[in-house]
Here is the input.
Amino acid sequence: MSQNDTNPFSAIAHLESIKQCIQCGTCSGSCPLADLMDHAPRELFALLREGAFDEVLHSNTPWFCVSCYACMVRCPREIPVTDLMYAFKEVITKQGTAPKNLKMPDMYQAFSHNIKETGKVTESQVMARYGMKHPLDALKNIPLAIKMQMRGRLELKAQKVADPKSITRLFELTEIPKDKP
Amino acid sequence: MTTQNKPKIGVYICHCGMNIAPKVDVEEVARYIQELDHVTVARDYKFMCSNPGQDMIINDIKELGLNRVVVASCSPRMHEKTFRNAVRTAGLNPYYFQMANIREQVSWVTKDSQEATEKAKSMVAAAVARVFFHQPLDTREVTVAKSVLVIGGGIAGMQAALTSANAGYQVSLVEREPSIGGHMAKFDKTFPTLDCAACIMTPKMVDVLQHPGITLYTWSEVEKVEGFIGNFEVTVKKKPRYVDEKKCTGCGTCMQKCPTKKILSEFNEGLSFRTAIYTPFPQAVPNVPVIDATHCRVLGQNKKCGVCAKFCETKAIDFDQKPEFVTLKIGAIITATGFQAVNPTSLEQYGYGRFPEVYTSMEFERLNNATGPTSGKVLMKNGMVPKRVAIIHCVGSRDTRHKKYCSRVCCMYSMKFAHLLREKTGAEVWEFYIDIRSPGKLYEEFYNRVQEEGVRFIRGRVAEITDMVEDPGDEGRLTVIAESTLTRRTVRVPVDMVVLSVGLEPARGSEDIGRLLGLSRDGDGWFNELHAKLAPLATPINGIFLAGCCQGPKDIPDTVAQAMGAAGEAIALLAKGIVTTQAEISRIDPDLCSGCKSCIESCTYSAIRFDEARKVAVVNEALCMGCGSCAAACPSSAAGVKHFTDKQVMGEIEALLM
Amino acid sequence: MKICFYPGCSFATSAGYKESTEAVCRKLNIELNEIPDWNCCGATVMFGENKLRATTLAARHFALVQTMGFEDLVTGCNACYATLRKAARLLDRDRELFQKTQEVLHNLGLELDRIPKVRHLLEVLMEAMPDSTSDKYKTLSVGAYYGCQLTRPDQELDKGWYPEILEHFLARIGFSVKEHSARTQCCGASHAVIYKNECQGLSHRIIREIANKGAQVITTVCPLCQFNLDQAQTQNNEPRLPVTYFTQLAGLALGLAPAELGLNKLLVSADKVLTRP
Ligand SMILES: Cc1cc2nc3c(=O)[nH]c(=O)nc-3n(C[C@H](O)[C@H](O)[C@H](O)COP(=O)(O)OP(=O)(O)OC[C@H]3O[C@@H](n4cnc5c(N)ncnc54)[C@H](O)[C@@H]3O)c2cc1C
Ligand code: SF4
Ligand code: SF4
Ligand code: SF4
Ligand code: SF4
Here is the structure.
């Protein structure tokens, strides 16, 4: 895999481990959201080994991974499946190839933005930002928000660290240049 | 001899076909070596081990008056003997020979051709430097005891015992359980021919018992092994049976009367009970019960009972029996300690031990056996016949967290189960597999047959088994969840019973047997054969052979073939009546020995004794294996191993470092 | 006992996790030292965006823990627990990442030399809670829900799939425990918010299983799990089980009043099961 320069995933630590995959399907069979995924982990690894990088770059599979680690503790080859899902998302984000109709990347962005601005996450604020792109989803959550409000559990004001600028600075210091080397 | 003469060394560089030559520039090596001191001739040749190759050495010794020979080729494990013989044929002492391994250590493992050539040069030069210091050594011949010890009474041990005894040798068979038979005795049918295990097994067990050449030690263990090839001295411990084997008629009255009845039967894999005095199964050989001392009221709990003794007409019960030790003179040993099934509890997602209807394959064998707890009816714990059964392959095998290897027999026995289930219960059978491994005569055909019988094969390793109910109709059933990798769907199959096709691992206690015999084990715990291809039944310890699953997972046909082969090896050894001892053994210089006895403690073969009169340590040449422990332990540099003298080894190292 | 506590973003607005944790710790003389000026750990999002950033966001706390003079860091949220541990594991194994992280933190005026041990609040209470001496809750049967990320991937606290420590803990402090098979099944986690319909099933499966096995109340160790299981029942008429925090049950076992433990904040009320004779 790494010998192929065109492999956009080649820099991922542990990517080599998928050479060991025996395509047993334990990972995909263990995955609670496999039904929503276009490939699920096993097939994603097969695609990578075949060099079908485009398929992987545009796959929704990593975005549906909820990090339950069920696959990872069961894989008979001890392949760090969940860690790889994270790493795939990182590459896909950098390359900007996440499927357009997928909501998860927008949610991730809203979440990340909230941290960048305030250092913390305030659910109402994340939803508000996410809702700009997906107003229907946001509306669906209103009845619940009202129930939460009634129990004194809805925080509308942003939680913040003392100096939010320092977190914004942290984001800048860890920025990875967009263009690929 | 030419010892006193100036060394004249002949050096032969082998191409080994395409193995050495394309990587190592053999002609260049020969040119380089030719220039070294004392080298009379250096040649390269396509195959040194071939007849013309050997003849080349013999002719040169005769015609050029060589008195030392070096061959640079493969590992000495392959051909050291071949070349020593050639040297001997030419009239030279075979120890005036040295081998340089430029195949395994150079050409196979070096990428760069130039680097390989340089490496080969220095290795051959080192061999030349070493052979310069070689001395003539002699071997001795020792007579052998015409008897065989077989450890383990499974199908492998039984077959090895029968073959050896049929050839006229005296055999002692040691089995630690109350009966011989091993795993096969627990099976009902065997793949691929589905012949009845008992029908082929029971007569063999009786043959073993009745054979005049076989002494059977059941409920016994090997306690100590001393000596060496042809002359082992083995101590066998007969654990107390508390039943006199000579008096017992095997009537079974004691077992019927024993009031301690609720002990889980090991033979039935815990699926039924046995009494404190018991034989593991009705066809046990010998048909003499043992008393389980932990559970017996008299022996284990200090209570009054003795019911068995009261009812025994021949007065065979003897609560005072003590362990007995028997010493045997043995010529060759065959190890046949077999395997055990992997316990799947730690694969927690399969719920073994948590869900009553999840069985291991060994449990299923008993459930399906005519002499088993359900008399061969496949029933669930609630007494009902299962309507749908899942069989799960590779449980604990092909898994780096458990056993990384393929256990080789479980695909086949899984399909045997599938067939039996279809035949006996008509149940729908789902097999979950990663790959079907059916490489054997009639094995693929068996796979096809089971497919035809309507067994559903799903390619996917099962993710989990759960009792969570998705559909109210499945209350009380288990759901098997897996990705069907060929259709890329997650399947959830509600079933009544699950069989886990667990892998094989070395039998409990193989580590101890290994230590007693000096056998090494591989990373997975199986005993190492001497050479995977050329000496698959021998071990690094001369005179000790392997048979059956103790060497690695295998089916019954392979096990039996191996057992016959191991017996053949043992017979070949004993038939000659003599063995040649090795020459590379320790020598203790009495002039240097200070009498400290450090060497005596260091020797694992007990080959050194102390001469009280002269106050020096003396080596028993027949026992010494030449391991060199004494040489390392000796503070006075009195002990040393012949053919590994300081001069020889230092000469070699110096040349290597040049 | 003094502990260094990392609450995480969902702690304060959760259904009484904060109230019950504080009340129980007060009662047990555990001093909760909240990391001053903590930030979001990045949860499951940040590692999918940028490994260095995710590690640094987490490691910022490791530096703060160091200045506070603590060796351990305790959190009550599974997602925080898993994320902080993941960062700790990476820093421990990847020298280069460690150095880069140190650099960024240094630029922010923080120094990182050692990595604290990340522990879960459950571990702290397992040590500190006394054995039960009363029969008051012997008839209240509880189903313990661990969530995915407490025992996975490390499997350090207990087995990854079918752990038993929570059951032992609850039995020890005086509750009746119902064994069930959903203990570490996924509830949909962060995806439940936007893939509501798709993920609802996951939560329902868990609730149904726990109800089937005879429990009257569920207990959780994570705000996200609690939220998902609790809110999944607001639109559904199947058996309703109150979803509590283990700290709330610990509080009850210590004789504290339900109001003190924030039990009034649950969406599915626990009043009925708790006031049963
Ligand atoms: C569920 C299952 C089904 C199978 N079905 C089939 C089939 O249908 N067809 C087929 O060809 N193969 C089958 N096999 C494989 C078959 O069981 C083995 O090939 C065969 O049993 C190997 O025989 P063995 O003598 O080497 O080992 P074992 O049968 O294990 O015998 C070893 C013996 O050595 C004894 N022993 C162990 N250690 C010591 C010791 N230290 N001292 C003294 N004695 C000791 C043991 O008590 C045992 O009696 C099956 C295997 C399994 C697990
Ligand atoms: S569980 Fe592991 S070996 Fe099996 S398909 Fe998934 S990654 Fe490959
Ligand atoms: S960690 Fe991700 S990919 Fe693995 S089983 Fe869980 S959700 Fe699926
Ligand atoms: S003495 Fe022991 S073996 Fe004999 S009948 Fe009593 S319990 Fe059974
Ligand atoms: S024989 Fe078949 S079931 Fe057994 S480990 Fe090998 S592949 Fe798996």
User: Anything to note?
Assistant: The two ends of chain B are 31 Å apart (CA to CA). Chain B touches chain C through ten residues (CB under 8 Å). The first strand of chain B starts at residue 9 and ends at 14. The first helix of chain B runs from residue 26 to 34.
